[in-house]
Write a structure and sequence with these properties.
The protein is built from eight helices and no strands. The chain is mainly α. The chain has one domain.
């Protein structure tokens, strides 16, 4: 499960880099790739929750992020995002939601005195800021929608990678401390 989650994070990062390589591409031309990457990320999250959750404590945040990614991936694959201006907002909300989940996960780990909590909060805050930036893109830098989508996918890939890496270590110390 952990390897599948890490692989999904790597695929999201590669998808984001692909968007950097083709900044002039239209969203329609890359929507299939983006939707498949989102769907894979969501499936890995739900699968990890189901597979690992029965063996040890895994947060519901993993399940929530997985279901959200699946639903949004289906929307992209069904070609439901037709307005070019809606693309950054759509993906920005996705990464902002994941950022808030990372902050919540970091804060929940803080009470168990795990050293990872500050990194999760910082990463979550960065994801939240990246998502919020997508709303103000035209005012600040004016990246193309595909370029901004690349930034968002790299950020989301980092979120998924972090979740995959922390699956092995998640709440292990907390379980020992509660015994």
């Amino acid at each position: 499960m952990r390897v599948f989650k890490i692989a999904a994070g790597v695929i999201l990062v590669i998808t984001g880099i692909f968007c950097f390589a083709a900044p002039g591409a239209t969203f329609v031309s890359i929507a299939f790739i983006l939707g498949c990457a989102m769907l894979l990320s969501g499936i890995s999250g739900v699968t990890a929750y189901i597979g690992i959750g029965s063996k040890r404590e895994v947060p519901y945040l993993l399940l929530a992020e997985g279901i959200t990614s699946i639903l949004l991936g289906i929307l992209v694959l069904a070609n439901q995002i037709v307005a070019e201006a809606a693309i950054p907002v759509f993906f920005g909300l996705w990464v902002m939601f994941s950022g808030v989940l990372r902050v919540a996960d970091g804060i929940s780990r803080m009470k168990y005195d795990l050293r990872q909590w500050s990194w999760l909060v910082a990463l979550g805050a960065l994801g939240t800021i990246t998502g919020m930036y997508s709303f103000f893109n035209t005012v600040l830098f004016g990246f193309s929608p595909v370029m901004l989508t690349g930034i968002i996918f790299v950020m989301q890939g980092i979120h998924v990678l972090t979740a995959g890496v922390s699956l092995t270590f998640h709440h292990r110390k907390a379980v020992k401390a509660s015994k």
